[in-house]
Design brief:
Elements: H1 2-18, E1 58-61, E2 94-96, E3 100-103, E4 111-114, E5 119-123, E6 128-130, E7 137-139, E8 147-148, E9 159-160, E10 166-167, E11 172-174, E12 178-180, E13 187-189, E14 203-206, E15 217-222, E16 228-232, E17 235-239, E18 243-247, E19 258-263, E20 269-273, E21 276-280, E22 285-288, E23 299-304, E24 310-314, E25 319-322, E26 326-330, E27 341-346, E28 352-356, E29 359-363, E30 368-371, E31 382-387, E32 393-397, E33 400-404, E34 408-412, E35 423-428, E36 434-438, E37 441-445, E38 449-453, E39 464-469, E40 475-479, E41 483-486, E42 491-494, E43 505-510, E44 516-520, E45 523-527, E46 531-535, H2 539-542, E47 546-551, E48 557-561, E49 564-568, E50 572-576, E51 587-592, E52 598-602, E53 605-609, E54 613-617, E55 628-633, E56 639-643, E57 646-650, E58 654-658, E59 669-674, E60 680-684, E61 687-691, E62 695-699, E63 710-715, E64 721-725, E65 728-732, E66 737-740, E67 751-756, E68 762-766, E69 769-773
Antiparallel strand pairs: 1-62, 2-58, 3-54, 4-50, 5-46, 6-38, 7-34, 8-30, 9-10, 11-26, 12-22, 13-18, 14-41, 15-16, 16-17, 17-18, 19-20, 20-21, 21-22, 23-24, 24-25, 25-26, 27-28, 28-29, 29-30, 31-32, 32-33, 33-34, 35-36, 36-37, 37-38, 39-40, 40-41, 42-69, 43-44, 44-45, 45-46, 47-48, 48-49, 49-50, ...
Length: 779
């Protein structure tokens, strides 16, 4: 009874991996629902389009002559803007102006500080492990390998089931499944997925609190209807993104421990359990156990081959092939390496591969070829198998990952960058990356390096039983504490935990070399994609608010802060203050116009700087208000200044001021943008407004904005408009508005700043850290 004696040791090892008690024991992308502003999607009974969820944006003719007496959005009376001097601000008509000039020879020279050791860098790729060069390759000459059949097998194994009966192997045995009485269980609403507080990535998980039958998720499946099925130690849980339906022995399962699942070509679901195999057609369970002809009741793996045959790998009874009418059993007597099967796979040539506790067996339909440590495997205990898009075979063992190209083995272990040597699951994604489930988290392998994802990155637990990719491209990891959904095309979060000097991000900017700059409440940070660097000197820069960041045409980086403006040329930092010609030290915005002139928006007006002198424009020169929140240059070369009390349009000779009287929804204008059609967008305290030169079109919460307080506006590559508000992000494609909040992985719902990097990914500075939005859909 050689096979049965070997079973106990291997089963113990498998149970160490596949459970939690004694270690046995990837539907659509269900983002928390996005809010669509165009329609509800449900037609009326008469077939007519449904009514819109939100009101449609309203347009109002700009009224520069008479002026509106009531606000076009709120309906409240509009009051004229009064300067501090008591004079009424002129709006809706040009105001000729000449700025107040300050020559540099009349002020002190700005202080220049050399940047030396005053930086602090943090490597953010600490979870990236590059594979060393020149890995050892172990050649395999397959022509010299023995091909085993029942005729030349030297095994004396005899298959005996748990009842003590001797079972014939290698020959068909007719089988009819046993129909089991079934009561369809009730559906339970699923609670929202959880996310760990320290999660950097959009990793969320489901546990028993959300509705799973057990927290130990051993196997996973997505059916043709899009439902996700989770095989656990307490039965099967079906999840449609909204609710759970749980199946257990009480509903007809042979056993509650479900180690593998598949959906056959007819749409039947098969569940491999510790009490046999169950076929579920949506109405009834049909059981196949030893009584119905199965070789062994403990079933660990399943496969449907290209001919429609089902293969059941067992823990001690070899493999059983089922053609719908009869079983044929394959054991050591037929050439298997051992009778304990941990995994199965069919390659593109139609060969079947079986992972056992004694190596890997490949079956071509006639004979077995076995690969063990003697042929180059890193370990004989095999948990997982995969053939990648190039036809390379990957073998997960108890001692690392093996790559086999038909000619040689190459080993990958912790020494080569794996987080752990026990490989329980392998999956290839749409980009050709391998995802490797271990006893210490998940590893993404691109052929050059391993990236580790553990509880540090947001997983609920590090022991990975199974991996699934759903149709939306989300990855699902079955663990010892629930199932984790990883959206690698969503938000990645950065905070002080990753090395930021402060979590409140007022400005984000991407320079021409690809560096991302983040201005915070306490200093500035530079991120090159690998390392996050804080500028600890000068103290005036490190210890104060960085409101704005700009790169000029010469490549110098400018920082607008609460204590003046700083210019960084890569080696030195030059500090400009009121003493050097600024009208005020609070620099909220910096702009370089098409002529290379710099403009500084301060708390006391706008400053024009040509390198020789500063020219000040304030309320005294016709500016609508001195406190500047935003600035842009339009395609005609005109400048627009958003202020605390209206907007000023400047053509180089005169100001034209706009307020609620002319049609703005609110006089506090936090950001400005020109879109691809030449429209000017205003982000205000009362919503967003689009101005085409004649009319204002208003967008508020009623029209679908996340919140009426708009801090920032961004135009992406496709011309889509993004609004950073006090209640999250809003994406507007011209027809619908979609919301992104903390529920979707955003660091915080208060979004102060936005930019786009060289890869097309979007970055958002929030009240509680920075978020990188890595969705290819929004590049």
């Amino acid at each position: 009874m050689k096979g049965q004696n070997l079973t106990s040791n291997y089963r113990d090892r498998l149970k160490m991996f596949f459970t939690s008690m004694n270690r046995f024991l990837k539907i659509k992308h269900f983002l928390p629902l996005l809010f669509l502003a165009a329609c509800s999607g449900v037609p009326n009974d008469d077939g007519s389009p449904p009514p819109p969820i939100h009101e449609q944006p309203q347009s109002f003719e700009a009224n520069p002559v008479d002026g509106y007496t009531v606000n076009t959005v709120t309906g409240r009376p509009v009051q004229p803007i009064i300067y501090a001097s008591g004079d009424t601000v002129i709006t809706g008509q040009p105001i000729p102006t000449t700025g107040f000039a300050v020559h540099l020879d009349s002020v002190t020279k700005p202080k220049v500080i050399r940047v030396g050791s005053g930086t602090k860098s943090v490597d953010l790729r600490c979870n990236v492990h590059v594979v060393p060069p020149n890995l050892k390759s172990i050649p395999v000459d397959e022509s010299q390998l023995t091909r085993f059949t029942s005729e030349n097998s030297d095994s004396d194994f005899v298959l005996i089931n748990t009842a003590g009966d001797t079972i014939q192997t290698g020959v068909p045995i007719e089988a009819t499944g046993k129909t089991v009485p079934f009561t369809f269980p009730k559906s339970t609403p699923a609670l929202p997925m959880r996310m760990k507080d320290n999660a950097r990535y959009d990793i969320r998980y489901l546990d028993v609190d959300q509705g799973l039958s057990s927290r130990f998720v051993v196997s996973q499946l997505q059916d043709r209807a899009g439902n996700l099925w989770f095989g656990t130690t307490a039965g099967v849980s079906r999840y449609d993104g909204k609710s759970f339906v749980n199946f257990s022995e009480a509903e007809g399962l042979s056993n509650n421990l479900v180690s593998a699942m598949l959906e056959d070509r007819d749409g039947n679901l098969w569940f491999a359990t510790d009490g046999g195999v169950d076929r579920f057609d949506g109405k009834t369970f049909t059981r196949f156990s030893e009584e119905e002809g199965l070789a062994y009741n403990i079933v660990s793996a399943m496969l449907e081959d290209s001919n429609g045959n089902l293969w059941f790998g067992t823990w001690g009874g070899g493999v059983s092939r089922y053609d719908g009418e009869s079983f044929v059993h394959f054991t050591e007597a037929e050439g298997l390496a051992t009778n304990t099967i941990g995994s199965m796979m069919e390659d593109r040539s139609g060969n079947l591969w079986f992972g056992t506790d004694g190596g890997v067996s490949r079956y071509d339909g006639e004979s077995f070829v076995n690969f063990t440590v003697d042929e180059g495997l890193s370990d004989n205990l095999v948990y997982s198998l995969l053939e990648d898009r190039d036809g390379t075979i990957w073998i997960g063992t108890d001692n690392g990952l093996n790559r086999y190209d038909g000619k040689s083995f190459v080993h990958y272990t912790e020494a080569e960058g794996l987080s752990n040597n026990l490989i329980g699951a392998i999956l290839e994604d749409a980009s050709g990356n391998l995802w490797i489930g271990t006893d210490n988290g998940v590893n993404r392998f691109d052929g050059q390096s391993f990236v580790h994802f553990t509880t540090t990155e947001g997983l609920s637990h590090n022991l990975i039983f199974s991996i699934l990719m759903d149709r939306a491209g989300n990855l699902w990891f079955g663990t010892e504490i629930g199932v984790n959904r990883f959206d690698s095309q969503s938000f990645v979060r950065y905070s002080t935990a990753e090395g930021l000097s402060n979590n409140r991000i007022y400005s984000v900017f991407n320079d021409r070399t690809g560096n991302l700059w983040l201005g915070t409440e306490k200093g500035v940070n530079r991120f090159d994609g690998k390392t996050l660097t804080q500028f600890a000197s000068p103290e005036a820069l490190a210890d104060n608010v960085v409101h704005s960041i700009l790169e000029d045409k010469k490549g110098a980086i400018w920082f607008g802060t609460s204590v003046g403006a700083f210019r960084y040329d890569g080696q030195t930092i030059t500090h400009f203050t009121e003493e050097n010609g600024l009208s005020n030290n609070v620099v909220g915005n910096i702009l370089e116009d098409s002529a290379g002139i710099l403009w500084f928006g301060t708390d006391i007006g706008v400053n024009r700087y040509d390198g020789q002198s500063f020219v000040h424009y304030t309320e005294d020169q016709g500016l609508v208000n001195n406190k500047i929140f935003s600035m842009i240059e339009d395609r005609s070369g005109n400048l627009w200044f958003g202020t605390e009390n209206g907007v000023s349009h400047f053509d180089g000779d005169s100001f034209m001021n706009f307020s609620e009287m002319e049609g703005l929804p609110n006089n506090i204008v936090g950001d400005l943008l020109e879109d691809k059609n030449g429209n000017i967008w205003f982000g205000t305290d009362g919503g967003a407004s689009r101005y085409d030169g004649h009319t204002f079109t208003q967008f508020t919460k009623a029209e679908g904005l996340s919140d009426n307080l708009v801090y920032s506006i961004l135009k992406d590559k496709e011309g889509t408009i993004w609004f950073g508000t006090d209640g999250g992000l809003t994406r507007y494609d011209g027809e619908t508005m979609v919301h992104f909040t903390e529920a979707e992985g955003l660091s915080n719902n208060v979004v102060y700043s936005m930019t786009k990097d060289q890869n097309g990914f979007l970055w958002f500075g929030t009240e509680d850290g920075a978020s990188q939005f890595k969705s290819n859909s929004y590049k």
